Amino acid sequence: MLNVAIVGASGYTGLELIRILHCHPEVAVTCLTSEQSAGRKISDVFPSLRGRCDLLLENLEPVRVAEKADLIFTALPHKAAMEVVPTFLKLGKKVIDLSADYRLSDPAVYGEWYEPHLNPANLKKAVYGLPEIRRAKIKGAKLVANPGCYPTSIILGLAPLLKKGLIHPHSIIADSASGVTGAGRAAKVDSLYCEVNEGYRAYGVGGVHRHTPEIEQELSLLAGEPLQITFTPHLVPMDRGILSTVYAAPLKELTTAQLVRLFEEFYDGEPFVRVLPQGCLPSTAFVRGSNFCDIAPLVDARTGRIIIVSAIDNLVKGASGQAVQNMNLLCGFPETTGLDGLALFP
Amino acid sequence: MLNVAIVGASGYTGLELIRILHCHPEVAVTCLTSEQSAGRKISDVFPSLRGRCDLLLENLEPVRVAEKADLIFTALPHKAAMEVVPTFLKLGKKVIDLSADYRLSDPAVYGEWYEPHLNPANLKKAVYGLPEIRRAKIKGAKLVANPGCYPTSIILGLAPLLKKGLIHPHSIIADSASGVTGAGRAAKVDSLYCEVNEGYRAYGVGGVHRHTPEIEQELSLLAGEPLQITFTPHLVPMDRGILSTVYAAPLKELTTAQLVRLFEEFYDGEPFVRVLPQGCLPSTAFVRGSNFCDIAPLVDARTGRIIIVSAIDNLVKGASGQAVQNMNLLCGFPETTGLDGLALFP
Amino acid sequence: MLNVAIVGASGYTGLELIRILHCHPEVAVTCLTSEQSAGRKISDVFPSLRGRCDLLLENLEPVRVAEKADLIFTALPHKAAMEVVPTFLKLGKKVIDLSADYRLSDPAVYGEWYEPHLNPANLKKAVYGLPEIRRAKIKGAKLVANPGCYPTSIILGLAPLLKKGLIHPHSIIADSASGVTGAGRAAKVDSLYCEVNEGYRAYGVGGVHRHTPEIEQELSLLAGEPLQITFTPHLVPMDRGILSTVYAAPLKELTTAQLVRLFEEFYDGEPFVRVLPQGCLPSTAFVRGSNFCDIAPLVDARTGRIIIVSAIDNLVKGASGQAVQNMNLLCGFPETTGLDGLALFP
Amino acid sequence: MLNVAIVGASGYTGLELIRILHCHPEVAVTCLTSEQSAGRKISDVFPSLRGRCDLLLENLEPVRVAEKADLIFTALPHKAAMEVVPTFLKLGKKVIDLSADYRLSDPAVYGEWYEPHLNPANLKKAVYGLPEIRRAKIKGAKLVANPGCYPTSIILGLAPLLKKGLIHPHSIIADSASGVTGAGRAAKVDSLYCEVNEGYRAYGVGGVHRHTPEIEQELSLLAGEPLQITFTPHLVPMDRGILSTVYAAPLKELTTAQLVRLFEEFYDGEPFVRVLPQGCLPSTAFVRGSNFCDIAPLVDARTGRIIIVSAIDNLVKGASGQAVQNMNLLCGFPETTGLDGLALFP
Fold it and tell me: What is the CATH number of the domain that holds C15?
């Protein structure tokens, strides 16, 4: 039995970790921390847990947390994560960090988009935890940087094309939309029900969203050359889900059928990527609560552009589900353990 | 391994059975039928299932279905169920019927609210499948009449009070609200997104909703005398969930604390009923996707009335989850098998 | 042209006043105040107003406000209203107060449910602004206490019955549900999109909601004797709307047809009350954005209970629309001026 | 007083015409037709109208309709419109057609995307009714082809750039999202509440949506050369609204500030186009129920791409509001008459 701690348990990704791990046969959640709600039971914060997980939320004292757990999920805001992760690593714990702190391999890039990096030493040890792209490295990692939600949907959508050199690297436009859980659980007017409901809007337009460098880093690695993209996020009045519609210019002429075959081969055997047959398109509704990424690649025959549509649940494959998948790889459990659940539809 | 068929698999309760049984270690789903979509794969109807359950939907030929399964869930409209259930029973199969056809023990009452009953013989053998009230009988049953969604929420909310004779049997008013899955998956203008969204309304007001006699039958049995209630259903713009707010006049003075204790004792050991501590109230959001019924009993100190608020997921504890709970009882599996999943929140 | 100020303009009822008054031919909005957003343009707070109402939000300095306006709408939280209303009145201004501060005629009752009343002197001058019940008095008033949203829906639903002595005054149960604008625009976790969406819940159960004494005061006046009710509010995942389902025991036997006729006669000529024909039921969707109150009275023939279902838009007939209706009465404008707009459906 | 008929009144655009015209001082709605609901009152179909518009719905007999009206709005599906419009024109009536039948000036293109055109003669007389682009021609028209919803949002977003020759005509990608009213009011499983809610998806991907040739026709005219675009529509779980995010490659380097100034000049004096200041982005929530088109043009400084975000209410500026704007131009009423209403937010 693996003892696991969740640091930052009173946010939505923390809750989702608890939900998923509750059905994981190899894991016991032994410690939960929360700065805002320390001293309360997690089931008082999230009554959905009542009777199944009633642990007390603790203050975040890294050494105490490390005493209770073999592996630690850090579900903290950026900066807060890199303040505690070094301690966990020093004490020999494995860490899966759901923040942005260890995703950008170059601390200068982190500094440009966030603030000066506090822990560049461990940056080098961190493995970017997208199993479909970097499974082998994850298996031996001590520190996994769990990918962002938008990046997961976009990178999985483009990996086969960039890896095979089929698209012009500078032609990529990623138009994405997210449910509101992506904005977290902080009390802000902008996230109030009546501000969000019945409205659809773009935000962070023009290359300013902080997921941009993360996406570009990984796409550049896949392409084998540095590239830049245009990335536009939107907010959808729904709880969960990210759908990305990605446009690119092909380097040679392709049909939709060829594209589908290419993607099927690339993702052959992957337990959580479903390449949809020609004529089918993904919806966030069909992956809600599950760890799937559904992908439909196609060609706009009139203009020749390639279009990839991919959908995930931002809290599962885009955060906590992928974190558990990484944990399974790290710990030698079968990769799908605890992640078998089907989407909740409707 | 128990082979199971789902008759009427292309509706929401059919899909929910597939979702729940997918994680049930003792069961194999071997046959799915659908009148509208026979010949298609279930995963083409519900893309959430793709790659996990891709069975072909068959026409409903009872003998063929019975050949493939030991136990059959009938998730059909009323009348359609009692047209096939007798064949299943005759062939020695166990049946859990999710329709209304075997819930009313008196065929005359069925005739009054629906139409003439076609199969009164089997009515006597049917057990009303509310485990918290009738667990022993369910264990030995051949035919379980799975309760309606509104009835489940209301009966569980009133059982402790009626059993102990604490309320006036003729004082009961049940004001309930349901998500839109309760209306099924038929293509009707009234169920269109834009007709339902951003609106809240009552329907079937004035004692005309067909769940009324089912509720009264079970409450009368609990009370030990015939009673009638006022039941008002409402439609809420959300997918899942039923919340019932039930009013009754006490026969003796009680405090909220006493009520809570009474309910805790009554439901002590029940795996799927959570009596909330004083000061907490249920929400459908906290049971979504789970088999829980959350109940808060309290007293309006100013008027003396007792108020019970209870919440379930109408597709789980109100339909398919309860059906699996009944299957577990019928087949000797631990009662919670396959039903451990926590609610999906948000 | 009447110059009008809106004090507390950056909340939802303030915005709704601006929206309605924008099409009122006799009124100019000359002053808006906001404690949180003073110095910003109202159209920066609410971009829906851009290009049509771009006034600067001011700090609330009562004397300056009074200089700019003949009539003042106070859309403030309780207590904040009674801190400024006396100044406005002293300076000879007419005031329509949308808070709870002048609704309860007995300051002791106010003290019991809120806190000690700061301005009992003006309480006596305040007229409870429900035009259908108290039109004559409103016309001559200096200070109108604009009714609460729940009270409006419940009082209009019961007035004909209580006035005619047709129901038992102590039998009333009001089960109501509100959209989320009812919770205001404060940044609270409980009002976040993901906390509210896809959930339905009761709150303030057991006679503790502060609208209770307001409802009881007005119903008691209508009944001619003091009465108490059981009132249960619920929260619906939608922006706007209140629907109340009210139960009462009749003092003599009545049919639905008789009830409908009675209500039609009682509300004959009322521009904003629509008594629905037998067989029709209201929905909040059909009054959204309009000043209507739709009412369906009926009898549950099986139990004999009377059931009234009434629906309003909580921000219009339940707040700002009713306030404009009161302004029209106060100022001698035709009562429906500015309130002709049809509901926005869908 | 202008007598007006609405042919196809029981759909959402028909209802929206009634709602808008109800507050238009120069117009009387004298005739409503509906194939499905003829013989019923429009207020029985749409209870929001009760007491304000209770006209009987008639069968569509063109000559009878023409007798009752000076101007006719045809809110029919494509093909059905061109079956009756010739009769109306022959009888000397003005027609504003909300279908696609007269939008494409080349009948061969219509034939390619829809079916053989039945009335090419009148095609030549039809004026594409986008007032901001073609106001002068609309004033003298007998037949106005009211633009589609997606095209309105995209053409208004690109007109200044194409007119000034600032972007590469073949670089345009339009990524749009619509509320569910865009799918109409037909009873289809795909439009059911539970199928749409909590899901976001693309549809008609790859240059197959029928609005594509309409958009291309108008953009080509603006550019002065034939062009093709990539257009991807998405479905958002909300009632109303379209937001388009449009990407293009600039022909010379521009800053966001320059773009905003260019758009402000281009749309100077336009009553219904709001160019947002730098730093602001549109939301469908801020135009809901109003005739505005909100536009934010900006430059992605990192990649050099131009991005235009534009938002409308698909039923107002995208259909019925624009139709009334066209009627005002055609009939010599002030252009904004009946269209002054502010957006309903929240």
Answer: 3.40.50.720
Binned at pLDDT 50, 70 and 90, residue B124 comes out as very high
Interface membership of C215 toward B (CB under 8 Å): no
Determine the structural domain holding residue A72 and report its residue range.
Answer: 2-125
CA C226 – CA C94 distance, rounded (Å): 31
Q: Is residue A47 part of a domain?
A: yes
The rounded radius of gyration (Å) of the Cα atoms in chain A is 20
Q: Are residues B154 and B234 both part of a single domain?
A: yes
Q: Are residues C167 and C120 both part of a single domain? A: no
- One-letter amino acid at D245 equals T
Q: Which residue reads 């009152």 in tokens?
A: D41
pLDDT digits (tens, 9 = 90+) for B202-257: 999 999 999 999 999 999 999 999 999 999 999 999 999 999 999 999 999 999 99
Q: Does some domain include residue D22? A: yes
pLDDT along chain A (346 residues), means of 10: 97 98 97 96 98 98 98 97 98 98 98 97 97 97 98 98 98 98 97 98 97 98 98 98 98 97 98 98 98 98 97 98 98 97 97
The helix/strand/coil state of A98 is coil
pLDDT for the residue D337: 98
Decide if B1 touches D, using CB distance below 8 A: no
Q: B323 in a domain, yes or no? A: no
Structure tokens given for D343:
């957006």
Nearest CB partner across the interface for C189, out of A187, A195, A198: A187
Q: How does residue D303 score in pLDDT terms, banded at 50, 70 and 90?
A: very high
Interchain pair A193, C188: CB under 8 A? no
Query: What is the dihedral angle through the alpha carbons of C184, C186, C190, C191, rounded to the nearest 10 degrees?
Result: 50
The phi and psi torsions of A186 (rounded to 5 degrees) equal: -70, 145
- Please indicate, yes or no, whether residues D240 and D308 belong to a single structural domain of this protein: yes
Same domain, B98 and B202: no
* D216 & D158 share domain: yes
Q: Compute the distance between CA of residue D337 and CA of residue B22 in angstroms, rounded to an integer.
A: 60
D338 lies in some domain: no
Quote the pLDDT of residue D286. Answer: 98
Dist. CA B299–CA B215, nearest whole Å: 23
Cβ contact, residue pair B189, D189, below 8 Å: no
Burial (CB < 10 A; 0-12, 13-18, 19+), residue A253, is: exposed
Q: Are residues C111 and C154 in the same domain?
A: no
How many domains is chain B partitioned into structurally?
2
Q: pTM of the predicted model, to two decimals?
A: 0.98
Subunit contact D294:C23, Cβ cutoff 8 A: no
Find out whether D6 and D19 touch, Cβ atoms under 8 Å. Answer: no
Pairwise CA distance, residues B290 & B322, whole Å: 10
CATH of the domain at B303: 3.30.360.10
Catalytic positions of A, written as ranges: 149
Question: What is the per-residue pLDDT across A178-237, written as a single tens digit (0 to 9) for each?
Answer: 999 999 999 999 999 999 999 999 999 999 999 999 999 999 999 999 999 999 999 999
D193 Cα to chain B: minimum distance (Å): 4
